[in-house]
## 1
Amino acid sequence: MIAVLDLGSQYSQSIARRVRECGVYSRLLPYDISLEELRRLKPCGLILSGGPASVYEPGAPRLRPEVLEAGWPVLGICYGMQLMAQHLGGEVGAAAEGEYGAARLVIDAPEEPLLAGLGGELDVWMSHGDRIVALPPGFRPLAHTANTPIAAMGDAARRLYGLQFHPEVAHTPQGQAVLERFCRICGCAQSWTPASFIEEATQRMRAEIGEGQVICALSGGVDSAVTATLLQQAVGDQLTAVFVNNGLLREGEVEEVLELFRDHGLRLRYVDASAAFLAALAGVSDPEEKRKRIGATFVDVFEQEARSLGQVDFLAQGTLYPDVIESATPGKSAVRIKSHHNVGGLPERLRFRLVEPLRYLFKDEVRRVGLALGLPESMVWRQPFPGPGLAVRVIGEVTAERLAVLRRADAIVRAEIAAAGLAREVWQYFAVLTPLRSVGVMGDRRTYAQVVAVRAVAAEDAMTADWARLPHDVLARIGSRIVNEVPAVNRVVYDITSKPPATIEWE
Ligand code: XMP
């Protein structure tokens, strides 16, 4: 394991992801973690992330010096490098000019294992105001750029390294190779694979759950599907999965989920609660109010099912690592659990203990684990779908009729994207039913019908997104099929805003 000490950079998560892509498990930890706690986690090396502060600012995050001196190999990135230099007797100063964006790195020590075999020059991404003015004793310069005389430094004897550039971002194409070299310097085994995760998680859950009974909510999404499959593998019939049809699912979704898990031999309870959800949504247009009512109805329905099962000890949830990181209190070593927004409130009301087998995985890792567990590609590569379902995509009041219109239009969007072979490439693609009506003409007759918006975005994660440049012929087919096949609709528009400033969903 490589511990990434998070000094506040917006890229800290990416460091952990990239290290894992090297086949080495990595976790983000608070920068002020104690030596004792860190030792318990048995890392084979440390990475100090970047951060927005300047080492001379009062209140800037500092490491505990004993952590740096404990003998682990350390790689400091940007602010992490500067902090390391400062701790070890070097000097950091404000650069006359900051360096932000692409730069050309010239490698001055190509024999050094951190940068060996990468050629003489690299394209790198820089983002710093301060820089190293004097190296700490024992270090030598490894690389420079036009603006930064010491863009990489190292002390091979103590296995301490610093990079002024960011190897973890896509704009540093060889960054992954640099991190891989650091993993090798640390002597890490490249054993972080879906199979090793499944093996370890299964054993851990067996120990944790013992003879207890576990309940799990299936949503039709990847995370809950992988959670349920993993638990079933670990504790078999001690798991009951509950699939609540909230009436807000997409066309064909209920059947697909039931069929998939029937084949997997999961003990599954199916509850059709569409009527209860629709009743709760009657007359509600405000998106937040919709969410609240859906959440509350879900808790009611799930609670009723759980009670009917008799004694249940654990609730399994598909919480992922980004949720865990986001809800961690900065500066505190303990990670606070965020109740999953789709089943929020359940653990408190039912006094279940939580099992969260995916809480240290990123989404792409969950997908790989799903495939290794034998889940089909069609499930594993599903696009993200919000817990409150189509209710957030019917703008205005949610009624059975409006849901039916949206479902048809959405099925057409999905079918055409799939037919064009774009389903993996596009992050999300769906239809939205707007509250607008407009005049149209069909077969010489005037129409006054509804407007459907099509949303398709490209993204690496849902934090930012850009509208997808779908081929015009695909858009043309989507538009023409919707107006021809969905009688209530006479106009289709395409959303050309990015996030930010817009969001992915319309709500
Ligand atoms: P926005 O619309 O904020 O959405 O750009 C970001 C991502 O989150 C998804 N989303 C949800 N996912 N429960 C979920 O599991 C929810 O309540 C929820 N709301 C939005 C959205 O589809 C996008 O991928």
Note: Residues 329-343 have pLDDT under 50 and may be disordered.
## 2
Amino acid sequence: MKKLVVFFIALTVFTGLHAQNSIVLQPNKAQTVINKNIYGHFSEHLGTCIYGGIYVGTDSKIPNIDGYRTDVVNALKEMKIPVLRWPGGCFADTYHWKDGIGPKENRPSIVNVHWGGVTEDNSFGTHEFLNFCELIGTEPYLSINVGSGTVQEAAEWVEYVSSSNESPMTELRKKNGREDPWDVKFWGIGNETWGCGGDMRPEYYADVYRHFAGYVRGNNLQKIAVGPSSSDYNWTEKMMIGLQDKKQLVQALSLHHYTLPTNSWVGSKGSSTDFGEDMYFATLKNTLVIEEFIEKHLAIMDKYDPEKKISLAVDEWGTWYDPLPGTNPGFLQQQNTLRDALVAGTNLNIFNNHADRISMGNIAQVINVLQSVILTKEDKMVLTPTYYVFKMYNVHQDAKLVPLSLVCNDYEFKGDKVPAVNASSSIKDGVLSITLCNLNPNKTETVECSLDAKEYKVVGGKIINAKNLADYNDYGQAEKVNMQDFTVAKPKNGKLSIELPAHSVVLVQLQ
Ligand code: AHR
């Protein structure tokens, strides 16, 4: 079979067939399960992500369930959100969880020093977050304060949340109205400890991690250590060396990579809505590079962990543009266009294709901040193009990854190029799903698929596209970018042929 695949690829390359793009799928070799948590999200006390976005309080005129926006609850359930990280981000390392429990009128206010210097009244705390997760059917992922917190504070939080022992912490939880523990598996020990979480060196943080992790106790907890930013391979290497003899304390290393069109944290990052093909092309390049980062970090991890016990959790990713004009710059509010849908689809295809080592992904942030799936303004809500990508791709959650080889045209721009098409595929309950992105904004790309059209019939198809790359959905207006039925997949010469319109994200399902 392997020889056949190589022959097919060679044939397509040498006969020039690749000008139409070709994809070889091996459903009979599907083994690795795509962890549904790759489709996770991130909620932070930043701008209007929590207050206004998720939580409006029980006295609000906005329809709500125990203070949580009804429209948001329904939209997130519909999208299928498997895991949600909280409370930050940089915010997490200023957060003292005991400020956010007990009667709201007794909770102290703090200043949100990282995000706009606004007052945080702590009315949304541990109970409010964990109950929200139960309401929308998602697994919580809590981020422990390492930067300004103590080991005791961390140990008590775990006890308060997850223990069924009799102890001062569980008594306190019961006094605050929650008899049974919540089921919290995922615990992040610090956030960006190389930056806003303490400006540490990896050698030092590895020891701090060991110290905290030893006191974060419970059954089957998944502890996640702060990993690198983008291409910081030194951080990964030093962390793996520092944890080598204590691997049982760490189940995953995180990776953060944001897509900045300008590729620079200094100066303007570019507008989220007003961009030309140059900025679009740069955005794609700075997205696609994550595959190289992932592979290089994994190679370093494998050197120190050949049994591959420690996985990679991409627990912050997404686009980062200039804040919308007229908004608080500390709130990181941006629009979300068709360009963002292509970024999301591409990242998720890459994560799926590395599902043997990637255990989680958390796009930043779920509502009203950076590459959000939902935007809200007072009582109004819009679903962004990125929302529809997560909805389309949810077929991959916990499905088996189908090995795939893709030979495709380049999308060329001003002497530079990126692969025009990217894809991933999975199989679940006998249905084979292929998700594809055509990044070329100027040309339809037709992909010939190796599967025999007599053996596989098209049973479903969806597409996300719009007239313009910069199209987005706005409050009170008809959606310009959403998910539609897709039918341009048909048999050709006995094989399946898929026509991908310019700048589109497509799902094809076969049985
Ligand atoms: O997502 C915004 C910020 O980006 C997060 O708080 C932080 O972890 C990262 O630097």
Note: Residues 1-18 have pLDDT under 50 and may be disordered.
